[in-house]
Amino acid sequence: MSHHQGTVSIMTAKALVKSVWDFPRSMVTARVLTQLGYDHGLTIDNMLNHTGITREVLNEPAAEIQAHQEVQLIRNLINALPHIPTLGVEAGLRYHINTYGMWSYAVLSSPTLGSGISMASRMLNMTFSLTINEVTQLGDQVISSIHSDHLPPDVLQFILDRDRAAVITLQREILGQPLPYRVVQMRRPEPAAHIVEAYTQLFGIRPQFNQLQDGTLFDSALMHTPLPAAQAQTVDLCIRMCRELVESRQSRTGVAATVRERILSTPGRIPDMETIAGEMNITSRTLRRHLTHEGVTFRTLLEEVLSTLAQSMMAAASLTHGEIAERLGYADVTTFIEAFRRWTGVAPSTYRRNLVGTSQRTRPVRRRFIPR
Asked: Structure pTM?
């Protein structure tokens, strides 16, 4: 990381461009895109033409799609719907936070806006994005540049629009509104007035066209503020996903289920037993007695949640040990590592090495933005 002349550059996109965008990604992105086309009257077979994707594979929960297959699917959409110049924007607005699995919990449980933005950017880079983002802090500004020269020209604008609209969708679902951008830059020539208006509504500011790069600028001071409470619907979706994960390992009923649900309900802020008892209008002693009657302890419930989230973030979101510790409320990574060893019988590093299947993809890691 360079600190030359007050600039923090997080990644050199040109050096990585050929290796970091062409990776297998979840079939969810194909389902989002085909649903978009279907809603505009296209048939599934026409959208999958020349992609190598079958209807059966499209509906497999764990299936993956190659980047070139997604590009062909996008090409099919564009060719079939040339009269919709904002189709990419419409696509990006469909990538809701629950689309990203455990990455969504990692974003929502970030302690500051800066770490949340960093995690969201990394999430996009490692899931569905076909563009490459480079984030730089320069003085009192954060500059997010979007690199897309590696993309075929015929799908370039759609993908730029899709990926940028996906970012805005995340911001709205987490913050309730897009970031207050100072500037939005676009390399494309200024389009027709109705397209400019669509961009303006998307970003909350009129873009500047014919620029040297695609990117955005906003105040770096925002990075150090606490992450605002996410929209209730966003949190509910995240809690539902986490609940299903935990329930798949150990089903609970009665007071135990209520307590475990409350532990899950505030990502990044794990409550203690006294807090939960107070919210239930009982004493912690009474709560302990109820749990004992059901054959469980508060610590057992807490560790069911923490161990499941830790393993899921490790496998599905590829977070570092420190990032997981932070999001589970541990004061330091050493305490988390000791807890993980107690839960699983192995150190986190050993657990990672033992991961099998598609959850642990072998691909270069895009460095995350760390505000100063």
From this structure: 0.79
